[in-house]
Design goal:
The protein is mainly beta. It is built from one helix and eight strands. The relative contact order is 0.31.
Length: 102
């Protein structure tokens, strides 16, 4: 929905701009990482935390194995983006990596 925020998130972690990332609306996920990596959260204004400590949006953040990221709810705006270094591996269907699990 917000192509510039999607692209920014990817560029911050060193991915090509169109690499698949996680898009969420109004409420973001809580995730536990099983490996070390880098992430970036962009888009609407959230209050993301890493292991309970606030982290900034719009910059690359180093993640360690077993770190817990909680994005929470949007303070302003609607759509948020989480890019993970290396991208999210999902198949391309009709020139899109969009996925709905329903």
């Amino acid at each position: 929905m917000d192509q510039s925020s999607h692209r920014l998130a990817n560029l911050l972690v060193g991915n090509p701009g169109r690499t698949a990332c996680l898009e969420f609306a109004l409420t973001g996920p809580t995730l536990i990482f099983r490996t070390a990596t880098f992430i970036a959260v962009t888009g609407a204004q959230f209050s993301p935390t890493l292991n309970g400590d606030p982290i900034p949006q719009n910059q690359a953040i180093q993640i360690h194995k077993n770190d817990q990221l909680e994005i929470g709810t949007a303070k302003t705006g609607r759509y948020g983006y989480l890019a993970i270094k290396g991208g999210i591996k999902v198949p391309i269907v009709m020139d899109s990596r969009s996925t709905t699990l329903r």
